């Protein structure tokens, strides 16, 4: 008994903390445990340090130490005048900054670009900060109202009608093309071997077209009446507002629950009226600035933001279409996706810019920038479709079944259960595509659109600033700009991913 | 009390060439509790999934509370509004909190205002004894708790019939009891229930009838006492001897 107690050790007073015999914390600890703990790591550390040495030091020297900061033309950035081997020539960027941001956008109108950028930021930032309220209104403003306002701000011009005229116009265009097609068939029937068949079909098509003509006649004649009056825009606006508000009222549930829908419809139209009035859209609007004059960062942002905002819905629609049980939709989606994935973006842009006009009827032109925008949106949409499809495939079948068992329709199941989960799974892939889209916008410079990089290259040819380091300075500057945007997107996506995946942390 | 709320007649279903359900006839009266058992692959799940049109069928007719569900599944939405279902694998929506899981369908299917839907959901969460976890995500709960949430979620739609497809098979033994207790409570309140399960204790305690299926057919249907004491069919005897060993 006694030897057990004597050999049992009971501490009577607690020991004070002692520092570790070998340092494991702080800088020295880090060196010992992470960087120099084995021969391989010692080697890797040295190689890494050398790499840093050979990249960081020259960059810092070029961008900061050896840089010239002030001057009015090239002479300031020449070695013989500066007295040392000149690195970055920042006065050149300073002098060219307006061109890099606005391109050839007329100087007097540049406030419109600034205002647009300001509006974009004012709407986008609250949208991106999760804590801020009324996301629905904010998103509505950014995705629907802002593009329209931005168009009239940047491009200028006014409107000559409203909903009624536009509906009439679209229907008429549609009807004209039907009748046109019928006449083509009739012409063909004069020479073809299948003459009787073509003649019958041609006549049928023309007949349908004529029927539609009389169907929409009240609408088109009303439009023509309105055009005759002095206040065509406002008359049309009033009629459209009344019709749309009534529809909203009825769809919203009529006398019982429709009042809210009516109120929001009314508020929307009031807001639209204010915008029309403020921008003077009813009598010509702002002076028109052709997109050919747009350039620099403006074009880069317009192309990439439009691409990002439109490609995701396109991608979602295509991904859902690809899983559809309706064969026609599925085949169309697959063909569409595979087509756009099969051609390089450069080809798409070339085709949109130089070939498309040849196919379109003579009096029908589409703006060059719009053509590039559509090409990029469809191209990126196809890629996003494959990203989204990956997310959809990761959702277990039980989710859809549980939703169906609760009585949710296909649309509600998809938008409330399936897509929210699927998109969360693929945020990294989606943002990856956005980032590559942002950088791919520089390809538009080959179809005569001057984006940031295009404007930069154009500025190289200015003899006033031609020095040995001009090009390097320009590319360094563009690189920094691209990096800031892409890195920003990347970090924000990490933040969102972390936040939305709260449910996966247990 | 005696009019059938679910009436299945001449139901036949094929998966391609495979005849899964063969000439099923079954009537369930209001407030009746039916336990369906049988060997694996006998078509139990398929049968109850036909009742809320998660599976389509080729022949026969299902009438739920007077709403007719023929082979072309015309009244799917109406039927699904009357029938709640609990799955073996819970199938809660992982991106929504427990409360949102329970209010989603009332809000989006029945157009109930959010506030009312939440009050109702809390009432049912209290009934399955997890009101305190309403703001958790499903992934943060035990299997038994998740399955009770799934039951509450189905109940928020005020179904007239509840379908259970092996609700306790994916659970650890100590959680089986809490889910079965919830189901017993529900039965005592008079809910019409069709339960696919191998929990014979539950069948004895709660069921009005036990239905035995094999190879896509209903082979035997009887009160629990009769069913366990004097099984008629050789196949039933074999099954019971295996399961009650
Ligand atoms: N989608 C399907 N396609 C083809 N065969 C299927 C499909 N689903 C089920 N089956 C087959 O139908 C039969 C019945 O399946 P069911 O799931 O109804 O059986 P069960 O009685 O519920 O079995 P368990 O006890 O294993 O759940 C099985 O043989 C199964 O292989
Ligand atoms: Mg089963």
Q: Would you spell out the secondary-structure blueprint of this structure?
A:
The complex is a heterodimer of chains A (506) and B (245).
Chain A: H1 2-7, H2 26-35, H3 39-65, H4 79-82, H5 90-102, H6 110-128, H7 135-154, H8 163-189, H9 195-215, H10 217-228, H11 232-251, H12 254-257, H13 259-279, H14 296-322, H15 327-342, H16 345-359, H17 368-393, H18 397-405, H19 410-425, H20 427-440, E1 450-451, H21 452-460, H22 470-500
Helix pairs in contact in A: 5-14, 5-21, 6-7, 8-9, 10-11, 11-13, 14-15, 14-17, 14-20, 14-21, 15-17, 16-17, 17-19, 17-20, 18-19, 20-22, 21-22
Chain B: E1 4-15, E2 18-29, E3 33-37, H1 44-51, E4 59-64, E5 67-69, H2 76-82, E6 83-86, H3 98-109, H4 114-127, H5 143-155, E7 161-165, H6 173-188, E8 192-196, H7 200-206, E9 209-214, E10 217-222, H8 224-229, H9 234-243
Parallel strand pairs in B: 3-8, 3-9, 6-7, 7-8
Antiparallel strand pairs in B: 1-2, 1-4, 4-5, 9-10
Helix pairs in contact in B: 3-4, 3-5, 4-5, 5-6
The complex binds adenosine-5'-triphosphate (ATP) and magnesium ion (MG).
Adenosine-5'-triphosphate binds next to β2 and α1 of chain B.
User: Compounds present?
Assistant: adenosine-5'-triphosphate, magnesium ion
Domains of chain B, number: 1
What percentage of residues of chain A falls in helices of 4 or more residues? over 70%
What is the averaged pLDDT score of chain A?
86
CATH class of chain B: Alpha Beta
Question: What would you note in describing this structure?
Answer:
The complex is a heterodimer of chains A (506) and B (245). Chain A has 22 helices and 1 strand. The model of chain A has no long low-confidence stretch (mean pLDDT 86). With 506 residues, chain A is mainly α. Chain A folds into 3 domains: 57 residues, no CATH class; 226 residues, MetI-like fold (Orthogonal Bundle); 121 residues, no CATH class. In chain A, helix 6 runs antiparallel to helix 7 and helix 20 packs antiparallel against helix 22. Chain B is an alpha/beta fold and 245 residues long. Chain B has a single domain, classed as P-loop containing nucleotide triphosphate hydrolases (Rossmann fold, 3-Layer(aba) Sandwich), CATH 3.40.50. In chain B, strands 6-7-8-3-9-10 form a 6-stranded mixed β-sheet, with helices on both faces. In chain B, strands 2-1-4-5 form a 4-stranded antiparallel β-sheet, with helices on one face. Chains A and B meet through helix 18 and helix 19 of A and helix 2, strand 6, helix 3 and helix 5 of B. The site of adenosine-5'-triphosphate has 10 residues of chain B, from strand 2 and helix 1.
